[in-house]
Amino acid sequence: MPVFPIAPAELNDVLSGSPEGASRAREWCALLEGGGVLYFPQTPVPVPDADLAFLLSRQQTGSNLHKNIAYKPNRDLLSGVDRKSAASAELKKLREIMRRYSAAVDAFLSRFLIPYDRHWRLDYASFRPIEEEGRDLPLRRRNDLLHTDAFPTRPTRGWRILRFFHNIHPERTRDWVVGAPFPRIIGNFTPGKLAVPRPEGLVSGASKFAARAAGLGGLLPHIKRTPYDEFMMQLHNLMKEDSEFQLGCSRQKVQFAPGSSWMVYTETVPHAVLAGQYALEQTFLVDPAVMVVPESAPVRVLEKMAGARLV
Ligand SMILES: [Fe+2]
Question: Which of 62, 73, 103, 132 has the fewest Cβ atoms surrounding its Cβ within 10 A?
Answer without folding.
Answer: 62
